[in-house]
Structures are given as C-alpha cells and as structure tokens.
Specification:
Blueprint lengths: L3 E8 L4 E8 L4 E5 L5 H11 L2 E6 L5 H4 L2 H7 L4 E4 L4 H5 L1 H9 L11 E2 L5 E4 L2 E7 L8 E5 L4 E5 L2 E2 L2 E2 L9 H12 L6 E4 L5 E2 H8 L1
Parallel strand pairs: 3-4, 4-5, 5-6, 10-13
Antiparallel strand pairs: 1-2, 2-3, 7-8, 8-9, 9-10, 11-12, 13-14
Helix pairs in contact: 1-3
Length: about 210
C-alpha cells in the first residue's frame, strides 16, 4: 500500500488541477500548482492537519500560481520551487492575468529555490526526480517517483493531449523532445496533469508515436 495520498482540487476559471500530496506517516505535504483559490487549498491543508514543506510549481503560467500568495502567507515554512527559465512568467503574472482574464490580481511571491534538471527531491521517504520538459513553457518540469509509479506532468502531457505551443516563448520541437523523455517510463506509470483526468503512460504512447 502506498505511503502517499493525493488530493486533487480543480480550481479557477481555467479548471486547473492543484494537487495536495502528502506522506501518510509524517504528514509532510507538497502543494503542487496552487492554481487559484488559495483559501480553499489552505482549508484542505488544515483539515488534514498537514505540514506543508514545499510548494511545487510545474511551470509559471498564471492559472497555476494565482493561489501562491495566500498559501505562502498561510504556510511560510513551505519553500517555493520553480525552474529558473519560467521566472519571467512569475514576475509578470499581473500583466498576464489582466490580459487573459481581464481582472487585476496581486503579485505573487518569487521562488525560494530553482530546480536542477534530474535532481531528486524527497517527500517523506519517497524520491521524485525532476525532469526538465520545456516546450509549453521554457521552464516546464515534470516530476517522477519510480517507487510510486507516479508522474506529475504539469501542462506537458494530458490525457490524449499535449501542452499548447503557440505562445511566443513556446517551442513545439522542444515539447516533442520532452515527450520522448516521458514516454520511455513504464507503461503503468500513473500520470496526473495540470488539466483534465489522470491517465497512464501506456495509454498515451500509442497515439503520440
């Protein structure tokens, strides 16, 4: 039986998936992509009596980070992780939210730490490997836990879809190379993504090849 528990919250105007992942033994937890509605995320954390150690950002798009300010204020001990190539997106979140959603938002806090490609970060006794998967954004990452057969794919890979690459800073060839890194994982690897339902690597290998 897995030592990890995962709770998915689908939040905001773009139906972004935020995940609260925690170790059942230690109650140490990650918030993955705090989307919007930081108060709701915080309530879930408090209800489960969790200790948030990290706020994991798969990339810097506004719909994945608008709840960042509130959760950081509520859980100041939690370290924010981001790939440095997406720092420009976090710094310009107000401008981008105004453009896409036509509303004003507060700035969000900057990351406390930047990922290194293929570094390992731990949740309880489980290790997650950071895989740099650019294409959708320059700093997109996915996180893979071999022991749990779990992939957190952000907006790189969805169920029967991949991340859009029509932004000026996106690159379609890069996302194809990133997908090659993910599709070699075991077929029964569970994939939880930034939007939509979960899938597994085996389901996605066929139509993407």
């Amino acid at each position: 039986m897995s030592d990890l528990k995962i709770k998915k919250l689908t939040l905001g105007e773009l139906n972004t998936n935020c995940y609260i992942i925690w170790d059942k033994n230690t109650l140490d937890a990650w918030i993955v992509d705090p989307a919007d509605e930081g108060s709701l995320i915080s309530e879930e954390i408090i209800r489960e009596d969790l200790n948030v150690t990290k706020i994991i950002l798969t990339h810097g798009h506004f719909d994945h980070i608008l709840g960042l300010l509130e959760v950081k204020l509520n859980f100041p001990q939690a370290k924010i992780y981001l790939h440095k190539e997406d720092l420009f997106l976090v710094k310009t979140v107000q401008k981008r939210t105004q453009h896409w959603l036509k509303r004003q938002v507060d700035p969000v806090p900057l990351p406390d730490s930047f990922y290194d490609d293929e570094e390992t970060i731990k949740l309880g006794n489980k290790e997650f490997k950071v895989i740099h998967t650019p294409g959708h954004t320059p700093g997109s990452v996915s996180l893979y836990c071999k022991e749990e057969k779990l992939l957190i794919s952000g907006d790189t890979l969805f169920k029967e879809a991949i991340g859009r690459t029509d932004f000026k800073y996106s690159n379609h060839q890069d996302i194809l190379k990133s997908l090659e890194k993910l599709l070699i994982l075991p077929k029964d690897t569970k994939v939880i993504s930034g939007h939509g339902p979960e899938t597994n690597i085996g389901n996605e290998q066929g139509w993407l090849k």
